[in-house]
TrEMBL record:
Belongs to the TRAFAC class YlqF/YawG GTPase family. MTG1 subfamily. One of its GO terms (cellular component) is cytoplasm. This is Ribosome biogenesis GTPase A. Residues 122-193 form the G domain. Residues 279-300 are annotated as: Disordered. GTP binds at N58, R59, A60, D61, N130, V131, G132, K133, S134, S135, G174. Transmembrane segments: none annotated. GO terms for biological process: translation. Residues 279-289 have a biased composition (Basic and acidic residues). It comes from Papillibacter cinnamivorans DSM 12816. GO terms for molecular function: GTP binding; GTPase activity. Its main location: cytoplasm. It holds the Pfam family MMR_HSR1. Residues 291-300 have a biased composition (Gly residues).
Length: 300
């Protein structure tokens, strides 16, 4: 599978970040709670050196809450405050301002000592394309949605957004490139729609997603596509079985795999299958079913 990103944009984006960083007090990296590793920028640590960093696990409404809790604990252990948000409904975003003030309490104290108590805190909001940066900022600021669409890589100009609570946020639309260091990471980005569907073969993607779901969430898969699915089957057979269960057939009675592939990806991305996380924090060892549909369970 060949997943391409936009290497040409990286140099310009890096330059923009370096020019802008001196103006900000902290960096808020937005991640997709379903894939906190794959949706992270590989260079953010070195690019934002010396800046306090806050992590937002966005799309928490679509992720498995138990796994999101593991990720939150993992980031905290590594020194980063964490928020879990659903920027579509706004759930969790009200914890942002207090978390920033807490992260920057030493700076706030210094401002007060210098008689600059009203000086706003400036936060750069960064993340890979389509991770929900605009939606997050819109929710926090009450800004009218300028753009919130499900098309990765749609770029707008960067802009400061004043937030009523003494914070200014810098929207950096789509400038951070995603990690593409392994096929597994590329697939997770593709499953969640973080990279464009046009550059991928949808059926292959759906086969691979079926295999992941069969490993991680067999019960959710069975609940949606019927007990007729044979666990452990190769992805193309799982997709074939699901298409038959759904009655997606072409003339001659063969399963319509293309249609089923689109439906599977749409249903996964839209949360119709249930709340699903595709990655767990590194310490948690080998991969196991996360919905109790296999052995051992999440707590093992
Ligand atoms: N379910 C759910 N959907 C979300 C959430 N946050 C954003 N979305 C949706 O994800 C899509 C992309 O959101 P945007 O806010 O445009 O993402 P962005 O990071 O600003 O995108 P770029 O400009 O491409 O960098 C939109 O369809 C949003 O409605 C969330 O927390 N939960």
């Amino acid at each position: 599978m060949n997943i391409q990103w936009y290497p040409g944009h990286m140099t310009a984006a890096r330059r923009m970040l370096q020019e802008t960083l001196p103006q900000v007090d902290a960096v808020c990296e937005i991640l997709d709670a379903r894939i906190p590793y794959a949706s992270g920028n590989p260079d953010i640590r070195s690019l934002t050196e010396n800046k306090p960093r806050l992590v937002v696990l966005n799309r928490a409404d679509l992720a498995d809450p138990a796994v999101t809790a593991l990720w939150a604990a993992w980031f905290k252990k590594n020194g980063h405050p964490v928020l879990e948000t659903d920027s579509k409904s706004g759930a969790g975003v009200n914890r942002f301002a207090p978390a920033v003030r807490d992260l920057l309490r030493d700076k706030l104290r210094r401002y007060e000592q210098r008689g600059q108590a009203g000086r706003p805190l400036r936060i750069m909001v960064a993340g890979i394309p389509n991770v929900g940066k605009s939606s997050f900022i819109n929710r926090i600021s009450g800004r009218k949605p300028a753009k919130a669409e499900d098309r990765p890589g749609v770029t707008r100009g960067r802009q400061w957004v004043v937030v009523a609570s003494g914070l200014e946020l810098l929207d950096t639309p789509g400038i951070l490139w995603p990690r593409l260091d392994s096929e597994a990471v590329g697939l997770n980005l593709a499953f969640t729609g973080a990279v464009k569907d046009e550059i991928l073969d949808l059926e292959t993607l759906a086969f691979r997603l079926m295999e992941r779901l069969d490993t991680l969430y067999p019960r959710l898969l069975a609940a949606r596509y019927g007990e007729g699915l044979v666990p452990g089957s190769p992805g193309h057979l799982l997709l074939d079985q699901a298409a038959r269960r759904r009655g997606f057939l072409v003339s001659g009675g063969e399963p319509d795999l293309e249609r089923m592939a689109k439906v599977l990806l749409d249903e996964f991305r839209g949360g119709v299958l249930g709340r699903i996380s595709l990655e767990r924090p590194p310490e948690n060892g080998k991969e196991v079913a996360m919905d109790g549909g296999g052995e051992p369970s999440l707590d093992d």
